[in-house]
Structure formats: structure tokens, C-alpha cells
Amino acid sequence: MEAGFSEMRNELQSRDALWRRMQLECQQLHTELLKIREYKDMQEIQIKHQASCVQLTEQLENKNAELLLLAQSQEHHREELNTIRNHVYREEQSHCSEQERMKTEISDLTEELHQKEITIATIMEKASLLERQLKMELEIKDKLLAKQQLLDFRYKVIKSENIHLKEMV
Known about the structure:
By secondary structure, this protein is mainly alpha-helical. Helix content is 96%, strand content 0%. It is found in: Cytoplasm.
């Protein structure tokens, strides 16, 4: 997209340069036209140079025709230049809008990521706490199981002694 902007700017600069050259040429033609008119006026005073006047008049008409063509061409180029400027402006506005939308989206995603990181940290803390509680409960159950086994063993021993004593009695 950046290359498109660069190409459009280059085209715009090229058209501007062309337009300026045409303006300079128009000014030169206008100056030349004024000189021709002065020369024509001098020739009218000197009637013996009438042939030169006709030639200058023809040249003036040719220059006028050229000037008219250049003016039309200049107007056409000015319209093209305005069209290109408008297009570049719209593209820049669109690009700026897209950048703002992307900045907002990135900001939203960053905030969402931050919230998820906080959630993950909280879950990890809770998991660690639950793991410690589970280990403690397992230790307690292991101790209780060991006591239970000890009690079962004592019970069997006492029961065996009772049976033995009953037999003796």
C-alpha cells in the first residue's frame, strides 16, 4: 500500500512539474505575444513593411492557437492533478483510519491478554494451594492408614490372645 502511495506521489510531482513547465511556457508565449504585438504596431506605422505584418499576424495566430491548446491541456492536467490529489487524500484517510482501528484492536487484544495472564496467575496460585492441601490430606490419610493397620494388627493379636485364653480356660 505504501508503494502505491509513493507511486501516486511521484505521479503527482511529475504532473505538477509538467503543469509548472506549461505555465512557464504560457508566460513565455504571452511575453512573446506582447513582443509580437509591439512589433506589429511598429510595422503598421511603417507601411512599407506590410508584408512582415502579415507574417507576424500569422505567427501570432499560430501562437494564439498554440496558447489555446496549451491552456486546454493545462486545464486537463489540472483536473487530472486534482483527481489524483483527491485519490491520494482518500487513500491516506483510509490508511489512517485503518491504522487507528488496528491500534484500537491491538490495545483491546493487549488488555485481553493482560486479563488472561492475571487469570492464569490466579489459577496457578489456586492450583498450588490445592496441591499443598492435597499433599497435606494425603499425609494425614497415610498416617491414619498406618494407625488403622496398626490397630488392625493389635486387634488380631488381642483376638488371637483371647482365643488362646478361651482355649486355656
